[in-house]
Amino acid sequence: METTVTPTADEQPPAPGDAERSPSVEALPSPDPLSQLQSRLDAASAKAAEYLDGWQRARADFANYRKRVEREQVDAYQNAAVAVLTRMLPVLDDLDLTLKNAPTAGEAAQWAAGVTLVRRKFVALLENENIKPIEAEGLPFDPNFHEAVVHEESTDHTAGHVVEVLRQGYKLGDRVLRPALVKVAK
Predict the structure, then answer these.
(1) N or C terminus of the chain with fewer C-beta within 10 Å?
(2) Which fold has domain 132-186?
(3) Phi then psi for 166, rounded to 5 degrees?
(4) Confidence bin at 70 (pLDDT 50/70/90)
């Protein structure tokens, strides 16, 4: 008995118009231009986000650097000004001592008036640099601003209060340049 084998649909030879459906061509996926464009867009978006993040970090780092440099410049200027002006404070002390015993009559009085003018200009210069005298007389003793050199009995002042300022103290903002030398009541 003779059996004939009929080919299945997969095994049948291609028909003359079916050349496009050959098994080797069907096995390869057809490229989808939309999916390729979407994957390229996703990759470009990820790279753009990475670049944006790097740029923002660099910009923030630069802004912080600029602020730090400006702060350091202000500090350097203040330190230089403080160094110079602190060395000038004894000159102001000498002017104050001179004017304590200033003559009130004759040519010497005119000379004392000139010294008073020089002192005013000097004090104005200090004030322009934000250097202010430390208030002390009659106030409670504060070791942050005052240096006690004498303790004395006083009926006019409460114990622990400044009786007299022996040498004026100065500060720049909250920074003490020189503490005030004071007498303190017992």
Answers:
(1) N
(2) Nucleotide Exchange Factor Grpe; Chain A, domain 2 (2.30.22)
(3) -90, -35
(4) very high
Spans of all domains in the chain: 132-186
b vs e for 147-159, b when ≥16 Cβ sit within 10 Å of the residue's Cβ? ebeeeeeeeebee
Nearest to 183 by CA among 144, 95, 157, 86: 157
Each residue's pLDDT tens digit, 108-161 = 888 889 999 999 999 999 999 889 999 999 899 999 999 999 999 988 888 899
- Indicate the burial class of 170 (C-beta count within 10 angstroms; 0-12, 13-18, 19 or more): buried
- For 107, half-sphere exposure in the C-beta direction (CA atoms, 13 angstrom radius) is 0
pTM of the model: 0.61
Give the whole-angstrom CA distance, residue 68 versus residue 131.
Answer: 24
Whole-number pLDDT of residue 81: 82
Token readout for 136 is 């002390």
User: How far, in Å, CA of 43 to CA of 123, rounded?
Assistant: 68
Angle at 9 between CA 5 and CA 15, to 5 degrees: 105
In 3-state terms, what secondary structure has residue 177? strand
